[in-house]
Design brief:
This protein is an alpha/beta fold. It is built from ten helices and 14 strands. It has a single domain, classed as Alpha-Beta Barrel (TIM Barrel). The longest helix is centred in the last third of the chain and has 20 residues.
Amino acid sequence: MAPNQTAGLVCAHHHLYSALARGMPAPPRTPTGFLEILQLVWWRLDLALDTDTIEWSAKLGALEALERGCTSIVDHHESPHAIEGSLSVIADACAEVGVRVNCAYGVTDRHGPEGAAAGLAENERFLADGGRGMVGLHAAFTCEPDTIAAAAEIARRHGVGVHVHVAEGEADTRWPALRDHTADDWWLVHGVHLPDDHGLAGTIVHNPRSNMNNAVGYARPRRFTANAVGLGTDGIGADMLDEFRVAFVRGREHDVTLTPDEVWDWLDAGYRLFPEARTDRVTWDYSPMDPWRLAYSPGVSPIRVEIDGEVVLDRGVATRVDADEIRHKAADAAQRLFARLENMT
């Protein structure tokens, strides 16, 4: 591999539906903590999603990932009023752009047993149809024990893990309910408030920028010696070089012995779900692509991306799709989404 090349980068935790959130109307009141951020911002946004906005948010999010050298995305989705078929919409949108995606629907009991059953059914349908994915749970504190058990059973039956938010904020005190179910193929997202001896199996996915933005604290991922650690964005784009830098400086603030090499290794976790991304080739406008240099070199950009041997980004421009068209239609879809948010009580 040339010194200005890397394998395809993997975003180990994304919410593609958040791609249309930028510029959304202000919440009814200013949130004062993590639970209110969920209630007043994100849980309102997902209620407003329909098939059209799911499609364009996924296309825009996939395009923006590709333009930052990210060739594979582990997505976690919720759209309570548009559940059935939603994972296929996301998968098809990403395939059109040329980016791989692992899909999961975040099951929750926030909308009653019917909503939980519909979410479980969507995970089951997508996996049974041959979709690439995991089984999603929102978080233990919004799920009944029977729902958690049902999600774990579907995952076991299909030979995949469960993708779930864990101890992101202090409100999530029910994460121990996951202990009897977790396995090495589970995706445990955040882990900010987990104790060192939490006893959960799986990969812990660190999302430093989101954790800072939501003021939930620092996960201190180096302490999780019994778990692999991955790196995600929690929906704030898919610029994994930028997330790497944020993870590095946040870690250094806590412990000055942290090295860029160690944080760069967190990007490897995504290859467990996307081993073929290792053979993707991303050519950058910077050389050499060394973690110690990249940690202090903002603005590095891909100029060419090859996925499965196909050039899908050439001279910084997507080859499969019209990027301007996607951005224009996504902007229109965002306005429709914002109108629904404005009309919510």
